[in-house]
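2024-03-11 09:14:02 INFO worker-7 job=invfold-0412 stage=load source=structure_tokens
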């Protein structure tokens, strides 16, 4: 059963005003079960709850409860960001003041009852289908300027852990093909001497 995600009203009432981004303490949060990773301003979100109501992941709150950050992931099969957004978010398009949808992610923002709701999901394809790595953030509308730099950093840092492991596995696979190709076609295996820079013979001075 596919549970619809409701952006507006999905958060608990909840934030310390971040002010200037300078001086804010940050840490990298990595969820090994969901494979979602991003930077979190630990100096702002001091309360951690788990799991997130939006799926697998965590939820963070400010000490005064005015801002809430949810980090989670979902299996999306072969759905594109555009299709997933259309089928799972019940927010009317007209009520959104920012919408960006690409082949790899979507980011949306809306204002309701003097509260800004921002959501972003990055999509990663794999052999079993696909996953969306997401975060939802809510904070007071009258603190928008103070939050702009914080929201930007969180959004740009969002990435799946699989990217690192997939890259390593791909490099290992490429090296394996090269070595097996050399063995199969009876080509000499390269040695250090083959790669070392060749020095010209010089007469002693």
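2024-03-11 09:14:09 INFO worker-7 stage=emit residues=205
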């Amino acid at each position: 059963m596919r549970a619809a995600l409701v952006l507006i009203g999905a958060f608990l009432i909840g934030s310390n005003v971040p002010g200037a981004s300078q001086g804010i303490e940050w840490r990298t949060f990595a969820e090994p079960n969901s494979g979602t990773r991003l930077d979190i301003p630990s100096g702002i979100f001091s309360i951690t709850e788990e799991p997130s109501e939006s799926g697998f992941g965590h939820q963070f709150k400010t000490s005064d409860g005015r801002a809430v950050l949810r980090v989670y992931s979902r299996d999306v099969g072969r759905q594109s960001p555009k299709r997933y957004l259309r089928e799972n978010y019940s927010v009317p398009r007209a009520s959104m003041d920012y919408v960006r949808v690409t082949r790899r992610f979507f980011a949306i923002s809306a204002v309701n009852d003097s509260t800004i709701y921002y959501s972003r999901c990055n999509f990663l394809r794999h052999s079993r289908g696909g996953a969306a790595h997401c975060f939802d953030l809510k904070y007071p509308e009258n603190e928008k300027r103070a939050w702009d730099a914080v929201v930007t950093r969180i959004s740009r840092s969002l990435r799946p852990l699989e990217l690192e492991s997939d890259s390593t596995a791909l490099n290992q696979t490429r090296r394996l093909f090269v070595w097996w190709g050399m063995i199969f076609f009876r080509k000499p295996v390269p040695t250090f001497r083959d790669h070392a820079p060749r020095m010209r013979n010089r007469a002693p001075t």
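2024-03-11 09:14:09 INFO worker-7 stage=report msg="The domain at 27-160 is CATH 3.40.1000.10 (Protein Transport Mog1p; Chain A)."
2024-03-11 09:14:10 INFO worker-7 job finished
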